[in-house]
Amino acid sequence: MTTNEKRCREAHRLREAAMVDSKLRWLTRGMLASAGLVTLTSVITPAFAYGDAPDVSDPAPGAIGLVMGGTTQPIPGTGYVDVVSAVYIEPTTPFPGQPTFPGTEYPGTLANGLVTPEQFYPYTGVKSLPFDTSVAQGVTILNNSIQANLAAGDTTTVFGSSQSADIASLEMEALDPSGTPSNLPVHFVFIGSEMNPNGGILERFVGLDLASLGVRFYGAAPADDFTTVSYTAEYDGLADFPRYPIDFLSDLNAFFGFLYVDY
After folding, report:
1. Max CA pair span of the chain
2. Does the domain made of 3-260 have the CATH classification 1.25.40?
3. What is the pLDDT of residue 214?
4. Are the CB atoms for 192 and 233 separated by under 8 Å?
5. Facing residues of 65 across strands?
6. Predicted local distance difference test score (pLDDT) of residue 51
7. What are phi and psi of 89, to 5 degrees?
8. Domain spans of the chain, in order of start
9. Which residues of the chain have pLDDT under 70?
10. If 76 and its partner were Cys, which of 35, 47, 65, 69 is the partner (CB 3.0–4.6 Å)?
11. Catalytic annotation on 162?
12. What does the angle CA 65 – CA 190 – CA 7 come to, to the nearest 5 degrees?
């Protein structure tokens, strides 16, 4: 099998994983509805970027990319890493004003991405890890990788999607518990983060603990600690949850967002 064929196969896996993640969003909606939190949840527009994103057009030499998959994607694969790099980290055709991280490299096994559990009991199997445990193990793995890069004097660019965006958000808190702007050479890029400071469902219902499912609502990701770019499709019901759930039109938009949102 040629390199191009392998990458095409990995890109196909990426699209399949996106479909799986969409189904997982339906499962999460059902869990929240059963807890009395959601009836329906937020018309889809292109993804937009926001966050604390100063000039990163010339990062320090030796920038290492740590690309994590979403739920059901413990090993992202080279196709996934290539697509993420070409669209979100070092875009081949960036939109006006899009932050970029040129020079980011994926040495050794990191060409396949950073391996994290990415499990969500019971959706990923009756023997799989609860969400909280999966996230906690992911934070440990990510932290070990970042600390190794810092010790080697390397800049780190972290990419997280859905569950792995939550992992990276909690790692931000661990790296900078004071909550003040950090001078550590670590950058973060998220898509579909449930911990978005304004709209993430884990922020909207901060403090809620669904212990029987192993799901805690962590709150918002730090907003100003690190260079952070977060892409959110408008009306994504998990990353752009309505502020006022009693607004029927917002709920309807979120409902269709669950069905059709894509990144």
Report:
1. 54
2. no
3. 92
4. yes
5. 157
6. 45
7. -100, -55
8. 3-260
9. 1-62, 254, 258-259, 262-263
10. 69
11. yes
12. 55
